[in-house]
Write a structure and sequence with these properties.
- The chain is 43% helix and 14% strand.
- By secondary structure, the protein is of the alpha/beta class.
- The protein folds into 2 domains: 2-188 and 341-354, Rossmann fold; 189-339, Rossmann fold.
- A 6-stranded parallel sheet has the order 3-2-1-4-5-6, sandwiched between helices.
- Strand 7, helix 8 (217-230) and strand 8 (235-241) form a beta-alpha-beta unit.
- Helix 1 (12-22) crosses helix 14 (341-354) and helix 8 crosses helix 12 (307-319).
- The protein is globular and about 60 Å long.
- It starts with a strand and ends with a helix.
Length: 355
């Protein structure tokens, strides 16, 4: 089949493309690189590089590139604002894509309006308030705007199916007529070299600084202050970030424990990369999130969005250091079995063909 993956979110589509290609399909990935992450793509939608001012080029060049988005058996869009956030001309642009391709699917991922409007009400906790306060300094997220909600609904109603990548998006789209089953995020473990999680003099703990509020970094900072006072000679704690993907993967090789996002029921892509490298990973692993993916248990250490939860789990690891290597081995195996890119690609193919 000829497949277009339109948009990117933390390399989900890049890993999916790898799996689909290995299964013998022709795949094009079109995106802006997901901002500073600069994730590889076949069709570059980063129109800020054009000579026109961004607001103009972002409205002009998609139409210049429109021919590139035609003639596919499958188009999968990763977010309603894959080109524009406004209802117009996004509605018209999407209608062209819908008309000139056989099937179109929407991935439930990222900060779309369904996540903000419905997920916010249905989840017991999340990143919503912290994102507004620390990342946006605003009382309202752009995805809560009327035009964006209308755009999200229009696309969700028009596609052949909506595929959530985790529980948070499954519950956000719950009850929608086009909602399909959750498919775990794909990871190409062939590109990630596992190494044993060997301890040095100190246990090295790392938290990636990306979106401070979204990832719940304030809880990690508070936990690190407590741990630094209690275990100054046992722990080395690092908060750093805004790295391209390749740099991030190299950076965390010397670490033992990774703290992913603290505000979610599920683990993010960076957390899965950490597990594939053999790191002990703290993040979201709530029972409902595992059930959504069809998983009974996982080596992910589940944490809540507060410092106390983080400190307690780190202290358990300090007192049971001999388990760190084994958890790392199980973490790699978990990613291969649950998130392996070829198996996940086949699940997408089965879902697309079945609709």
């Amino acid at each position: 089949m000829k497949i277009l993956l339109l948009g990117e979110n933390s390399s989900i589509h890049l890993n999916l493309k790898d799996g689909l290609t290995e299964l013998g399909h022709e795949v094009d990935l079109a995106s802006n690189g997901d901002g500073w992450k600069d994730i590889p793509r076949d069709i570059d939608l980063n129109y800020s590089k054009k000579w026109l001012p961004f607001k103009i080029s972002n409205r002009v060049y998609p139409w210049v590139d429109l021919q590139k988005f035609k003639g596919y058996d499958i188009v999968q869009i990763i977010s309603p604002d894959f080109i524009y956030r406004s209802f117009f001309p996004s509605k018209l642009f999407f209608s062209k894509i819908r008309k000139h391709n056989k099937k179109v699917f929407l991935l439930g991922a990222g900060s779309d309006s369904y996540f903000w409007k419905y997920g916010r009400k249905r989840l017991k906790y999340g990143s919503f308030d912290d994102t507004l306060k620390y990342d946006l300094n605003s009382k309202k997220h752009p995805s809560e705007g009327k035009n964006y909600i209308e755009l999200n609904k229009y696309i969700a109603d028009s596609v052949d199916g909506i595929i959530p990548v985790m529980y948070e998006y499954e519950i956000s789209y719950l009850g929608h007529k086009n909602l399909l089953g959750t498919i775990p995020m794909p990871i190409n473990t062939n590109k990630i070299k596992y190494s044993d999680n060997v301890l040095q003099k100190k246990i090295v703990i790392f938290h990636g600084l990306n979106r401070y509020g979204f990832k719940g970094t304030r809880h990690v900072e508070e936990a690190f202050k407590i741990l630094q006072k209690k275990y100054p000679n046992k722990l080395e704690m690092i908060i750093d970030g805004h790295m391209p993907l390749e740099t991030y993967l190299k950076f965390i090789k010397r670490t033992n424990i990774i703290i992913d996002q603290t505000n979610f029921y599920s683990l993010g892509v960076s957390g899965l990369y950490s597990m594939a490298l053999g790191k002990v990973t703290l993040g979201g692993a709530e029972p409902e999130a595992l059930k959504s993916m069809g998983v009974a248990s996982s080596p992910i250490i589940n944490i809540k969005p507060n410092a106390k939860s983080i400190v307690e789990e780190i202290e358990k690891l300090i007192n049971q250091k001999e388990k760190i290597l084994d958890i790392g081995i199980k973490s790699r195996k978990y990613v291969e079995e649950v998130h392996g890119h070829i198996n996940i690609a086949q699940k997408y193919l089965d879902t697309w063909i079945g609709k």
